[in-house]
Amino acid sequence: MDEIIIQPALHNAIGGIVVLAAIATVLLNWRGLATLKTSGGQTSGGTDSPRSPALGGWQNAALIAFQIALMVQVLIGIKLLDQGLGTVQKYVHYLGGLGALGLVMLYYWLPKRDVRDSSVKALGLTVASLAFVLMTFIIGGLYARGGLS
Question: How many CB atoms lie within 10 A of CB 18?
Fold first, then answer.
């Protein structure tokens, strides 16, 4: 893998995709919570249904796509560090990239009492993850353009 050279522009482009995926995930989780509030918290299954503490299909798909985008971004960033690029802002990237991924993964570890609780946790963690992603994208972009040195 050492003979493969990755351009920083690819990392920047994937970063844009990660930001868009984070925004889409937050919007879908917010919409899911708003739908729950308007429907009175009713679910498709009963209280004993295995689906009752779960998110909707689009919310799950968005969370999965967001996590995959974050993982691809982290792998590309590690390869760029291996090439000797981005060493100045590596801690910002570690905090922002791995922190965002950790927050999204935390959703799956937290206990969920019901659908509303699950939706609130998903929304809160994806909003926090979006903050990490935006911080990393903006600071990394400023470093790449020479705005911060």
Answer: 28
Largest Cα–Cα separation, the chain: 57
- Model confidence over 77-103: pLDDT tens digits? 888 888 887 766 777 777 888 899 999
Contact status, residue 133 vs residue 19, Cβ threshold 8 Å? yes
- The average confidence (pLDDT) of the chain is 84
Return the number of other C-beta atoms located less than 10 Å from residue 32's C-beta.
21
Cβ pair 140, 89 in contact under 8 A? yes
d(CA 52, CA 23): 25
Could you say which DSSP state residue 50 is in? T
Backbone angles phi, psi at 100, to 5 degrees: -60, -45
At 55, phi and psi to the nearest 5?
A: -85, 170
Which residue, among 136, 111, 106, has the nearest Cα to 124 in the 3D structure?
A: 106
- How far apart are the C-alpha atoms of 110 and 31, rounded to whole Å? 21
Q: Which residue from 18, 36, 6, 8 is spatially nearest to 136, judged by alpha carbons?
A: 18
